[in-house]
Every structure is written in C-alpha cells, then in structure tokens.
Amino acid sequence: MEKWFVMRKGAPFQEIAEKFQIHPILARLIRNRDVIGDEAIQLYLNGTIADLYDGMLMKDMDKAVDILQEKIREDKKIRIIGDYDIDGINSTYILLEGIKYLGGEADIDIPDRMKDGYGLNRNLIDRAFDDDIDTIITCDNGIAAREEIAYGKSLGMTIIVTDHHEIPYEEVESEKRYILPPADAVIDPKQQTCVYPFKELCGAGVAYKLIEALFGACGKDIEDVDYLMENVAIATVGDVMDLVGENRIFVKQGLEMLKRTNNLGLRALMECTGVPVERLSAYHIGFVIGPCLNASGRLDTAKRALELLCAKTKKEADILAGDLKALNDNRKDMTASAVEEAVKQVEETRLGEDKVLVIYLPDCHESLAGIVAGRVRERYHKPVFILTKAEEGVKGSGRSIESYHMYEELNKCKSLLTKFGGHKLAAGLSLEEENVDRLRETLNDLSTLTQEDLIPKISIDMQMPLGYISEAFVDELELLEPFGKGNVKPVFVEKNIEILSARILGKNKNVLKMQVQDAPGTQMDAMYFGDVEAFLEFFREKYGKPVVDGLLRGQRSKVEAAFTYYPGINEYMGQKTVQIIIQNYQ
C-alpha cells in the first residue's frame, strides 16, 4: 500500500511567475524543490558555467596544485588510481586528460573488483612502487585508506587524495572524531574544515575542480577543459548524486556537450545503444550509457571503459562500445536471476519479517550485489543488503530508504565487519562468513525503523485537471530538467478520471494505452508502462472482469480512479498530441 500526499509549500507564486517569466505552476514546482529566493531561482533556471565556484576554495587544493606543478616540471611519474565504477572511471579519465595536456607523465591503475576490492590497497601501491612511480593521485577513493596511504608514504611516495565520500570517524565520548589519511594533500569537500560551499560533488566533480585549478595555476585557459564537463555529467548522474546546485549546472551543460561530443568512444557507445542524441537526457545516462560503462568494472575490468574513453580511432571505439554493450546485456540476465533468488528467500523464509533485509546469495556475482539490492529495495521498500561469497570471506552492497542512514547503521556494527564505507543511501561491506547471521540480527536489533517508515510515500506536487495540459506547458516543463535524484520529475494528480477505453500494446504486452476523461470533460490519451497485469487486476477486483474486458474491446463503462501522472507529447507521423504518462493509481 502506498501513502500519497500533496505538498503544500507556500510562496508568492504569481509574483515569482511574473518576475521570471514562467507559468505560475512552474513557480510552485520550483518551490516544492526547496529552491527559495530570487538568487536561488535564477541559478536553478539559468545557471551557467560562470556560476560554478572556484576550486581553490577547497581545503588542500593549493597544496595539491603546487605539488603537481612541481612534479610535471620535473617529469616525475604520476599514477592516477581510480575506482571501478562510473564515477571512478570518469574521474580517472579527467585527471589523465588534464595532466597529460599539461605535459605530465601520467598513467592509470584501477583496482580489480574481485581481486583488489574497493579503493586503494597494498597491491596497487606495490605495483606503483615497482613501476618507479613518484606520485599517486586517488580519485573517487582514498579518504578511508589511512593505513594504505601510510604504507605508500613509508615507501617514499607523494600521495594526493581526491574523493567525495564521507570522512571516516570514531566515536569518542559521544563525539565524532574524524580520521584523515596521512596524504600530502587531501581534497574532499566533506571535510569539516573545508569551506567549499557545495558539498555534494561526485568524485569526477572534485577531479575536474583539481584540473581546472591546475590549468589556472599553469597559466592555461581554463576553458580548454570545459569539454570534460561531459564526463562530470555522466559521473554525477551515474553515481546518483543530487541534481542541485553545481551538480545541476554540470549535468545541464554536460548533456549539451555530449550531444556534440568529440569523444569517439562516447559517440560510438551512443550509436551502438541507440540513444537519441538530439533528445539526450539524464535518463539515457542513468539507464543506457551508465550501465554499459559500469558493466566493464562489474564483469571484466573497468580499464575497458577507460580504453573506450581514450579511443583514438572510430574502429577501435566501435569495437570497444560493442563489447561493453554485450557485457551489459549479460549483466542484465545475471541480475534478473539473482533478483529472483533474493525474492524467493524473502517470500519463502522468515527473512521477510525483518525490517532490514540481509540476504546472502553465495552464487551471485559480487559485482551485481548493489543492483540486486536496489531492485529488492524497490519491491519491499526496506533497507537491503545483498551479500555474496568473495575470494576472501563475504562481500556485499546495501541500498537504503530515506529513513535509514546506512553508513551510520553499519558503523554501529563495525566489530562484525572487516571493511565498510558509503553514504546514507548506499554502502559496501566485507565480513567473515560466520558473521553473516550475526550481522542480520544486529542490524535488525539496532534498527529504529517503524512500520510507518516502511510504507512507500508518493510525494505529489499538485492536483491538476487535464485541461491545464497543452503543448506549450509541456515544453515549459523542460526548464526544470535535468531530472534525477534531488530534482525529481514533477508528479501531478487528478481524481475521478474515467477510463473510456484501453488496449494492450508492445510485443511483451507491457504497455497499456488508454483514452481517459476527467470530471470537467477533457479527454486525452494516457499511457501506462508499469505492471499491466497488476493494473488490470486492480480494476477487475473493483469493477468485475466483464467490465474490464469490455474496456479492452473499446466499450465504455463507468470505470474511475485517481492517477498520478506526468504530461508529455506523443509525436506520430508529424502530428503532435498531448498525453499523460500514468505512474500510480488508487
């Protein structure tokens, strides 16, 4: 059961609409996203590259820039060590491109998910030492690698950390004592003493700021690195960062750059996956491009995705893009079977009674744990940890709900874990196999989740009759894009919508097209892309099978419901018509 609620946030909507030349409904939608005050609204609607903050405001940025200038001048060997996910891959590429452009001798290393695990480790440092590397720069990792960095320093290496993850801490007399690694420079906007105004950058955003600052210090035109914003955009969406403030600007600008990108690899990947380049949106990064880049680090090596970004010929780019697409198709099949196994455990054992689901799938490929956890969380609206058998012990990934801070909850159980890290809504962990059941019990014993917390909440922007929808209004809604976490697509609701007729479309019979009418009499097409069978069953229970069968034959019956929806445009043979995309029903 879902709980629907309509937001009621007040503001002088008419005044805002007149000042910014927008529809009053847009003024309301912007207020619902907690964008308040002329300056914030201006930035939200019209923010550009010029509105980005100066990276030199970040703690230790000056130190890192000085070190790198010296290392580049002295032709010292620099190694960039990223992570194997979409953020790590793009962060690595940004640093490699920038340092090489400035004449630095740089190469990369990315941990192998299975052999090395997440982040910096001794293997990577030994490898760098054996290759006579002078300086290591981490990106999208390093903030929690205190011991590993101390080891690298003991070998005489210079180490710079760039990261965006939470700073590790220990509780001392009920106070958090933050623990920083002993690197030569630590750049992470989440540090308590960092005055950088925007704290929610992804790893690629932090890496970009370093390259920009380095270009400025070397007397180069910083506009020469603007093109790397497309990589920041891909990483920001792919790493599911909030699309607010600087992230919104990066993604907005980056999407425009991607439409005309000179990167052969990205062009080949968009071509091979059938992405509509002219209509490219954050959705395509999140659900098409991103998963292909991530698939390399999951099932092979993330260095493959990096090779794609660095491809120098169209032929090379096409081959690598095809490989990544094939890997991702394979990943989809493996994910579906792991989700099925997880659901079986929840439905057929006492596990389903837990408020925090800790599911052990020994045979699941460990790289898929996070995706599987996300799917199971969507199904049950509970925090989910998926654990898998690793080369050593057990590894896992967690995905959370809004009312459960995953990183802090794991911190309470750290005696059971060999390693862990993450954010409020996602985490990674390692433990010994004999501790799996104890972890499940402990997380549930310590959980303060209530039944209310476990009910999915559908947040609705406003009630809106269908008569308000026009082509011009739908076009104006695009001003609110890009949509994603932190800037969700608007949700409208209308009650007493009558379904006049319905038909099932799609080769998998997974689309429902309806003709609907609201109480004032406005008729239009409505599309539903969810579970069509469950949708029809809902109405069969309420109105009876003959009535629903009649609707599918085009016979009008008095079938009504409340729908949440988003308005759209259907273009067919040059004709444009407005329609609604139905999301939820009651």
Quick recap:
The protein is an alpha/beta fold and 586 residues long. 41% of the residues lie in helices and 21% in strands.
Structural account:
The protein has 586 residues and is α/β, with parallel strands linked by helices. Helix content is 41%, strand content 21%. It contains 20 helices and 20 strands. The chain has helices at residues 13-20, 24-32, 38-46, 61-73, 86-101, 122-130, 146-154, 203-217, 229-238, 245-259, 264-273, 282-299, 303-309, 314-348, 369-380, 406-411, 436-446, 471-477, 532-543, 545-552, and strands at residues 3-6, 77-81, 105-109, 135-139, 158-162, 169-172, 175-178, 185-187, 357-360, 384-389, 394-399, 417-422, 426-431, 457-460, 462-463, 492-505, 511-517, 523-528, 559-572, 575-585. Strands 3-2-4-5-8 form a 5-stranded parallel β-sheet, with helices on both faces. Strands 9-10-11-13-12 form a 5-stranded mixed β-sheet, sandwiched between helices. A 5-stranded mixed beta barrel has the order 16-17-18-20-19. The longest helix is centred in the middle third of the chain and has 35 residues, at 314-348. The chain is globular. The chain starts with a strand and ends with a strand.
